[in-house]
């Protein structure tokens, strides 16, 4: 920066503000490319360290280096907002890929619900898709994911929200489910239809209505995750 302080550069127009600005990395009046600044320097570092393949190409790319940095931050206990800041992520969901969960089974379940591009359904799904879950919420879910499992999915209700006051979690705004629960959802759908038929034979119209409503809700959930209620 000291070397550049008195350099006779031309001004650039900022794309966002429209104001006149000076840039640090400029040569002969032109901006130095990100490729030259990062990829070229990283390839030189690889050659210096002997990290090259048979063709002499560095084995570490800028993209791989970025992922390694994110993983190392997560494994050393960095908070999610710190990882977001260092990597320039705009939402917690973008940084969740670096979250470390020791149990591989829990990790797989966690990623099917909270991982990028997860196929999910239920009222709680929109908060996951839109990235509106806070960093603290994701940290808690990461540490307590096993506790969120229900019969047909997961409840993303947080401790500070108090205990859940309803058993009808199919309509709960914190409920979310995935294709991993498709077979259980189909079984529950079948049970509700049988109960509706039984209630119909006993002339219990309100029970027929209740069981049919649950069956219809399950059908919508299955449709949202791309599954057929009949398993076809």
UniProtKB/TrEMBL annotation:
Residues 1-112 form the Tyr recombinase domain. The keyword ATP-binding does not apply. PROSITE patterns: TYR_RECOMBINASE. The keyword Cytoplasm does not apply. It comes from the Bacteria. It holds the Pfam family Phage_integrase. One of its GO terms (molecular function) is DNA binding. Keywords: DNA recombination, Plasmid. One of its GO terms (biological process) is DNA recombination. This is Tyr recombinase domain-containing protein. The lineage of its organism: Bacteria, Pseudomonadati, Pseudomonadota, Alphaproteobacteria, Hyphomicrobiales.
